[in-house]
Automatic annotation (TrEMBL):
Residues 150-282 form the EamA domain. This is Unannotated protein. The keyword Thylakoid does not apply. It comes from freshwater metagenome. Keywords: Membrane, Transmembrane, Transmembrane helix. The chain crosses the membrane at residues 38-57, 69-88, 94-115, 122-143, 149-168, 180-199, 211-229, 241-260, 266-285.
């Protein structure tokens, strides 16, 4: 079984790939509707995940998972995350929507994981998460528009959806199912649920830039990212996984500064450093626990 340290690095790798989504869209197909981009991403990503599961020889597990009601709940949560997150961004702005969603996701995942008896995250995790959320707040400060109640509720709904498929995925992975199959099954369901939106914005994905975006978002930022994400499901607390993915907005911000020539205030830089510090502390905490367990 993979160590907690390596699992943490894998989840961080997934967060890095997640963080490339916004910049790649702006560079390649800036006018595409977000919900259409989400649909294309899920369809291509789900195909990639299913093919990867077939390559591993776990098609039987994939089919067995599709017969479990919990997988359909996870699939609805994956689709719900996409839809609710985009509603939140539209009504509250990118800064507030991202802050509310990603900031509350670790807390909700930790509480749901504790309720589902996946283990209590612990006070150290709470402290690290608080530092990371404070950093995320500083990162988004000054770029936020006044939010409305519906937008904030949508962001919280997206965070709850994220928590659900993370916690339920961890439970299934720890019960003996391959983590890639655990990711592939709900994403295949979510892709079908969002399929009606595939043509809602025209067939931009047939253009050269659209095809590159579809391949990158689908195969790299979804298939590859969730293969890495799945590595953490068996050994990390769901709350810890959600905290590690707070690296996503930092990566997105850095790409915006470097690639899109966006400006970041001094407050924003402090926020980035706080998130990085929190993630480093969480990684060190997991490595310490791994060594302590090995010596016991």
């Amino acid at each position: 079984m993979i160590s907690k340290g390596r699992a943490s690095v894998a989840v961080l790798g997934a967060a890095v790939l997640f963080g490339t989504s916004g910049t790649s869209k702006v560079l390649l197909v800036p006018d595409a509707m977000p919900i259409t981009v989400a649909s294309v991403r899920l369809v291509v990503g789900a195909v990639g995940l299913v093919l990867f599961v077939r390559w591993l020889g776990h098609v039987d597990q994939f089919m067995a998972l599709l017969r479990r009601p919990i997988i359909w709940v996870m699939g609805a949560a994956v689709a719900g995350y996409q839809g609710l997150f985009f509603i939140a961004l539209e009504r509250t702005g990118i800064a507030v929507g991202t802050l509310v969603c990603l900031g509350s996701a670790p807390l909700l995942a930790g509480l749901l994981g504790w309720f589902m008896r996946e283990g209590a995250p612990g006070w150290l995790w709470a402290m690290v998460t608080a530092i990371a959320v404070a950093g995320l707040s500083l990162l988004t400060l000054g770029n936020a528009q006044t939010p409305d109640v519906i937008g904030v509720l949508a962001a919280l709904g997206a965070a709850a959806s994220y928590a659900m498929y993370t916690v339920f995925g961890a439970r299934l992975a720890r019960s003996g199912f391959d983590s890639s199959a655990v990711m592939a099954a709900p994403f295949a369901i979510a892709a079908v649920l969002l399929l009606p939106f595939l043509f809602s914005d025209g067939a931009w994905w047939w253009s050269a830039d659209g095809l590159v975006l579809a391949i990158w978002l689908g195969l790299a930022a979804t298939t590859g990212a969730y293969i890495l994400f799945g590595q953490g499901l068996r050994v990390l607390q769901p709350g810890h996984i959600a905290t590690l993915t707070l690296a996503e907005p930092v990566v997105a911000t850095m790409l915006g500064v470097v690639v899109l020539e966006e400006r970041l205030t001094s407050t924003g830089w402090v926020g980035c450093l706080l998130v990085i510090l929190a993630l480093a502390l969480l990684g060190a905490m997991e490595n310490h626990r791994t060594r302590a367990k090995a010596m016991a």
